[in-house]
Description:
By secondary structure, this protein is of the alpha+beta class. It is built from three helices and five strands, in the order H-E-H-H-E-E-E-E.
Amino acid sequence: MSQAFQLIRELVARREVKISSHGYDELAADDILVRDIVAGVQDGEVVEEYLGYPKGPCVLVLQRDYHGKPIHVVWGIPRLSTTPAVVVTAYRPDPAKWTGDFLRRL
């Protein structure tokens, strides 16, 4: 498992979470609840890692909402810090752009 994702899971378990402004906008646009994002991180699966991202390491994670529908969440950790876990963005993946399991781009 990704070290960044392991730290993110630990931060979420300690409730050290921040939602970015962009993240809130995207959650609202796709009708995604914050509670689904927070609750689903423990069962999430890393799709891609962006360890060199300028604002700090990020991971794209496949998660599921309360109804089992897929959600992609980009979680990050601020550069030169170890807290909080930041929801950079979240969206419902487009089936036309992803494999059936939503783990690989087409």
